[in-house]
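CO-FOLDING WORKSHEET

Operator: S.A.
Ligand of interest: zinc ion
Run index: 103
Mode: holo prediction, single chain
Checklist:
[x] sequence pasted
[x] SMILES validated
[ ] output reviewed
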Amino acid sequence: MQRLYEARDRIEAQLLSDFLHRHLVDNAIFGDYLSGAIGELPADVYPSIWIVHDRDQPRARDLLACFLAGSSRQTAPSWACPGCGELVDGSFEICWHCGSERP
Ligand SMILES: [Zn+2]
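OUTPUT RECEIVED:
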């Protein structure tokens, strides 16, 4: 069993765990049982995702990359186009209205 990723918090750990399970990668979360007492613990104690079968590790890394890319896109803020003033969703690099690049 190998550790794949150290999550920022329990929610991210659970989301990633569910995501991997949906892609048939057996995994487990360790460390999250500590989160109830997080205020008394050093800041470097975070829940970690462990991959049960070593043969799944390469695929799990690919899925992790997709997971992280997807979650960062969702949280990217919208931006106002400098060319036409249109408000563009944060997942786009160019304005859908006039084609200007994100400033
Ligand atoms: Zn524009």
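REVIEW:
Residues 57-75 form the longest helix (19 residues).
The radius of gyration is 18 Å.
[x] output reviewed
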